[in-house]
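Summary of Year 1 activities. Much of the first year was spent building the evaluation harness for sequence design. The harness presents a backbone, in tokenized form, and records the residue chosen at every position. We chose the following record to illustrate the format because it has been used consistently in internal testing since the harness was completed.
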């Protein structure tokens, strides 16, 4: 199944706060957002790998108490998967397993390009915002 054929997420109405991640091997962008406002705010990018990354994710979850998590999943322009697609999906499974929260996936093609074009100082955090705002728009 390609990203283009994915159906809109079924998100419980009582889920209001979301924490989003733009996964990268060395840096993971983070944003927090609210369903009611439909907006996201960038948070400090996580600059860690492996268990150190998950320790920082745990801190963000404790701080924001999200109802669910959102991850960006990259695809080629034609919708085909690549190595980073598999890595992002694995990250989502790890989040689900470690933190017991529902994880929603968003096609994040061009989010980093859009963040850079918008003049973002922290392209990873800005990309996480773009991912989360795209997700929040899909809920309306």
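For this record, the design step produced the sequence shown next.
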């Amino acid at each position: 199944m390609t990203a283009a054929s994915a159906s809109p997420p079924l998100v419980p109405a009582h889920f209001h706060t979301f924490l989003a991640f733009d996964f990268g091997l060395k840096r993971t962008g983070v944003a927090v957002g609210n369903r009611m406002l439909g907006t996201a705010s960038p948070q400090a990018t996580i600059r860690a790998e492996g268990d150190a990354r998950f320790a920082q994710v745990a801190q963000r979850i404790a701080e924001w108490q999200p109802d669910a998590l959102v991850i960006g999943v990259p695809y080629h322009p034609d919708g085909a998967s690549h190595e980073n697609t598999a890595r992002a999906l694995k990250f989502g499974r790890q989040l689900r397993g470690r933190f017991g929260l529902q994880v929603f996936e968003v096609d994040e093609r061009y989010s980093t390009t859009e963040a850079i074009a918008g003049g973002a100082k922290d392209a990873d955090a800005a990309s996480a915002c773009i991912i989360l705002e795209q997700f929040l728009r899909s809920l309306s």
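The CA atoms of residues 2 and 79 lie 6 Å apart. Quantitative recovery figures across the full test set are reported in Table 2.
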